[in-house]
Amino acid sequence: MPVIGDRLPAFGHLPARAPQGRSFLARALARPSLPAVVGLVVVVLFFAFAAPDLVSPFGLATVLDTAALLGIGGVAVALLLVAGQFDLSVGVIAVSSSLLTALLIEIAGWSTVPALTVSLLAALAIGVVNGVLVVNTGLPSFLVTLATFLILQGTSQAGSQAVAGATRVGGLDQARGWSSVVALFDGAVQVGNGRFSVSILWWLALTALAAWGLWRTKFGNAIFACGGARQAAHELGVPVRRTTVALFCLTASAGWLLGTITLVRFGSVQAGGTVGILSGIDFIVVAVIGGCLLTGGYGSAIGAAVGALLYAVARQGITLAGWDPRWFQALLGALLLVALVANGVVRRRLKAVPRS
């Protein structure tokens, strides 16, 4: 029987059926995304009054664009967290892969599509290295990907300086084939004073695909098994090693997509920079706010997407309300703390349900 991706997976027999009157409440509490959904409703209602421009076309477009960039990485990281692993290198992979694309175009004279293909393969190779190191050495993925982060950050800055003579590479919009990728990675629809980017469609499509994978596929079952009971899953024949490596390739691919979107959008890249306003830790934060436990075995792709939207609404709401932007860090910390407490309470409640 497939594991439902937005609920705590169960091994063995099915849980005893809750009384009819409590079934709706029990199903609601079993959803990791519940705290994020409640938080999103509260924050949207508050800033709709405190910053009315938030619900204007400009405000909505800015919120959705920020949520899309954060959600693309956050959803991929959420799947990895469900499997009980971390990846701190998504942000630096985004910058490094886009820098490789830029160097191949600007210095080597490649056309756009081949350069993007090579940078994608390089990102996948980094994902494979991360995954293989984790499964073969038993080292914590937090430390492995932290090392990857440092290596890529230093290499990208020093390499760019050595090859291009600067840490910033730009002027790419005149490259061969550049116009052909603009619609795919930087298309937009103008509604009033709001520019709704194609990155929103990428985010929604990837969220839907990830949610379907967790709900309906054996791969989703394997992800939950890896995070919930890794040794037992291995003994039962679940492909733990292959699943782990595949998930690291997924987060690396998400990093490449983020880097490509920002590269095509701005036509330049800064070595050692970030993806827009985002840093690598932000992807983990939104996944946790969305209901993923740091211990693995519990989480939701939809919850991570809602967490990204909550993050974006809070940031843009504070900006439009004219508050000191530093209040956002305090609000984000409070949301993270509430999410951690709520997830712990829900998990203890679910573990206490008797099983027949």
Count of alpha/pi helices: 14
Q: What's the order of the H and E elements? A: HHHHHHEHEEHHHHEHHH
Task: Estimate percent helicity.
Answer: 55-70%
Query: Which quaternary structure do these chains form?
Result: single chain
CATH second-level architecture: Orthogonal Bundle
Indicate the CATH class.
Mainly Alpha
Give a short account of the largest sheet: 2 strands, antiparallel
Keywords: Cell inner membrane, Cell membrane, Hydrolase, Membrane, Sugar transport, Transmembrane, Transmembrane helix, Transport
Pfam families: BPD_transp_2
GO cellular component, one term: plasma membrane
Subcellular location: Cell membrane
Characteristics:
68% helix, 3% strand, 356 residues, ABC transporter involved in vitamin B12 uptake, BtuC, mainly alpha, disordered N terminus, two-stranded antiparallel sheet, 14 helices
Task: Walk me through the structure.
This protein is mainly alpha-helical and 356 residues long. The chain has a single domain (32-351), classed as ABC transporter involved in vitamin B12 uptake, BtuC, CATH 1.10.3470. Helix content is 68%, strand content 3%. The chain is built from 14 helices and four strands. Strands 1-4 form a two-stranded antiparallel sheet. Helix 7 (178-186) crosses helix 11 (240-266). The model is unreliable at 1-18 (pLDDT under 50).
